[in-house]
Amino acid sequence: MTRGPWSIAGVLAVFCVGCIGDIGSPDGSEPSGGNDGPGHGVTETDPGRVTIHRLNRVEYNNTVRDLLGTSLQLANDFPADDHSFGFDNIADALTISPLQLELYERAAETLAEEALESTAVSGEATKAEAETLTGDVGSATGTGWNLSSNGSVGLSHSFPADGEYTVRARVFQQAAGPDAAQASLHIGGQTFGPFDVEATSTAPMTIEQKVTVTQGPQQVSVEFLNDYYEAGAGLDRNLVVDWIEISGPPGSGGGSSAYERIVSCDPTSGEACLRTIIGDFAERAWRREVVDTEIDPLLALVNAATAQGDDIDEGLKLAVRGILTSPHFIFRVEIDPDPTSPVPHKLNDFEIASRLSYFVWSSMPDDALFDAAKAGSLQDEAEVAAQVARMLADGKSSALVDNFAGQWLYTRALADATPNAEEFPDFDEELRESMRAEADLFFKEFLHGDIAIDQLLDAEFTFLNDRLATHYGLPLPGSSELAKVQLDSNQRGGLLKQGSLLTLTSNPGRTSPVKRGKWILTQILCSEPPPPPAGVEGFEEKDLENASIREKLEAHRQDPICASCHDMMDPIGLALENYDAIGAWRTKDNGFDVDATGVLPGGAEFDGASEMAGLISKDPRFAKCAAEKVFTYALGAGEGLDDHYLEQVTEKFAAGGLKLNELIALVATSEPFLYRRGEPAEGGKP
Amino acid sequence: VIRFNRATRRAFLGGAGALVALPMLESLRGKKANAADETIRRILAYYVPCGIHMAKWTPASTGAAYELTEILQPLANVKDKLMVVSGLANAPAKPDGPGDHASGTGAFLTCAHPFKTEGANIQNGISMDQVAANKIGELTRIPSLQLGLEGGGGTGDCDSGYSCAYARNISWASATQPLPKITSPGVVFDQIFDGFDPEETSAEKAKRNLYRSSILDYVLADAKALQARLGKTDQEKLDQYLTGVYDVEEKIKKSETGPVCTIIDKPGEDLGFQEHLAMMHDLMVLALQCDATRVITFMMANAGSNRSYDFIGVSGGHHEISHHQGAQSNFDKLTAIDIWEMQQFASLLEAMDAVEESDGRTLLENSLVFLSSEIEDGNSHSHFNMPILLAGTGGGLITSGRHLSFDGEQSVGKLFLSMLQTVGVTDDTFGDAQGALDLS
Predict the structure, then answer these.
(1) pTM over 0.90
(2) B270 touching A, CB under 8 A?
(3) What is the chain B residue with the closest CA to A326?
(4) Interface ipTM
(5) Which of A132, A135, A488, A508 is the right S-S partner for A153, CB 3.0 to 4.6 Å?
């Protein structure tokens, strides 16, 4: 292992034409005499321009959540967002069809109805998001707790006084079998229900129970009563709990927060108040300051309702619907002083605030960002960096785990993995959720911790619950909730040895060393091998029914056309052959002993996953690849980034010890992120 | 206590239960309802992924006396209303380098050559269904419906440098605008029934439509003002937005005539694959039966789907198996998948054939249903000799119940021109095709 991995790139370039692409080679795009970048005004290099960016489904859901406090996820029913360059937030690829426009219009109606429903909620409310609780079965999901078999999830609540309280829980089912899911509520030893839960994830329902409770700590929980599972047919009924809320006793104050936030004065008091209400809401929804003339037509909508005999609240609903259907809400608008000028200019404060919030939170700016924008302080890069640090510390930065890591590292694809039930009877929804949670929690460490990104591939810790530990053959941590575990063997630890990645890079019935090797080259080194030339086919068993997968792949590499790329992909993938198609450890495959040794084309030898991971993580292309992925996601653009910026950020990232949180701040303070230019009338693409 | 807001109440009306298709109420038909004996013609396109195992698909003889092959056997009940078409090509679908699944899907209904890109410069052609919608779409509240089972998901690139837009959409309103499909049965339901609320009076409905129109008028002015301040590429995005607003305004005008057929229970979400497919079939029949639309496209999966069919005892993924390498074990698996696909297609056709229309024909007879895949064979990725079925008679305008075979060079676009003729399109070119086939 003395010969370094540095030779990988060179050999690859010789044998596998096209593997390298633009990445890792100057490609003629030398910086054209620019200075050292951010903080020094406009350089001669081109910061590019990002096409007007439609909110994608996740961004829409998160934005209305933060704007209105709703838990409706109406965008789940919108058509899927096409992705390009590996991400679904690429502005050029986000189109609007007539159907989509209609769904925006309907969603705005539903949201306005919910937000301005002036129902007084009595009493002070305590709301627990279920993903923060621990159930006796199932696991946490992104937004709740999934009871994947009969059991319950809940909390111990300290009731402040004797009296009547209202317990509400937002729930939905994952439907399967003849019946709807059934739930019961347990409150301080009393049981209520069963409630039929017919609602599904797109429109969860709320179950509610009034109950008289005595002062002091009492258990409050939701129980799933009728699990249904039929492995062969892929049928699996589950109950997902989004949150549990306890309110009361009456007379302790409170109210509908969305209504009170929007309707900040008495709307019947006259036009001045209506203008304030509309203006304040439009400013938050459109993420910028609005001018009086923009309020006029919205006020006309209010008057249109009152002219029909409806009350002011109905009129305000129309204004809210108008604001939420407007292109200023649907799109992230950035205005060039001269839309045809190629001269770069800095974004205004509100545009920067939105770039930051959609990058780190996949959502709208919060009050602190708006305040900073109003104060003009986002023109200062130190303030931008400080905001990024604050935003990463906020829980909403889990959007980077779901959306950035979910797509960079493919974790999202785990949801669509379909291991064959016959070969892998152990694979069920609980295992799938546990794998996903392990990958997510692991990545989160890099956002918040002080660890270098090369540990992404090989680390001495991971996150386990009993289900996953059983699957991995490790000691049980004694909980269904995932906890951080220090590992004393290198059989696990790091992304490459996680069930999640190992499953989603496999075929339904067997492992695919080629897919695994290709994944590492493509996603970790940004050196995607070209697809096989037309007419050349993937290997198959036909002549080698009785051979190990290694022998089959070796036979296939006899063909020099195949070998040019597979000499790179196959050894990397074969290093992971100790893990089956759902990531369980094995020493035999189909009767053959697993041989996880290999040699990279540059001559570097390895034995097993850890040594292979070690070689890959030291490849200089890894840091640049990570920087490129962050840039693509941050800008929502996959082309037009001047390589000069990528080199500059990569250098600083490496010099600072390869910390992911630092990389995020470097990108957020880079010129392509803070500047833009117009588009010359003829052929505007850089 | 279960609480609904207004929108949810609408969604849950009628309570829970299975989807039951009820007969259309003639009296509630839209204003544009035809005279009782006038034939309403429809066009459907049905996409199955990863090609077909042709050796067990193509009938041995041509003409009316042909015998159904092993894969086509499930269609026995509708054989006399079915045409098997062999030997047509979609040559423009051939990709630049690899990427046959994406380019074959992009060109599936366009017979145009999809430009290889992941960026803004997407270029395809208008699709056959949209040519039909441009002709007859104005006769119904919904000009055309795009449906499917798989939305997005997935990661990485879609296929060898082709944008996912090509791999996931078969309907293209123009060379640059794909029309994404609806995968949620609930959204299809809302489309068909237009948010119909049985408790709503006609005055309330009129007011609701007035409010919707006022809001759309407002955003229209807003969007135009914004568009004027933007650069060229951004203006194109606003064009898409504006087109959407105009379309919804048209729909609202048409909705003033009331619901087009009897309301049914709203379907559930989160269905398993097979239930989801059956539900979409039911909704397609309903949409056509109620004359909510006359043009539908449907994708059973996205391009190159690697779905596991272990529920019919086939191990491995579909795409993986389709690279069969001539292995008998893979041929057997592909045959089993293809037979299953034809069983599903047959259930749709039989349901359409069970609907009698006022002109005395069945819904199936009054339709033309095109079925094919993005490639011929999963191993060769060929775009010639495409597997094609054409069900229905286009309201008696074509002679079905036979196997037609061509020389392998003629464009599938000629078949599209023949289909389009039945709905009154008189063009004689489409994609790479010149002149229709004579199917009378």
Answers:
(1) no
(2) yes
(3) B219
(4) 0.84
(5) A135
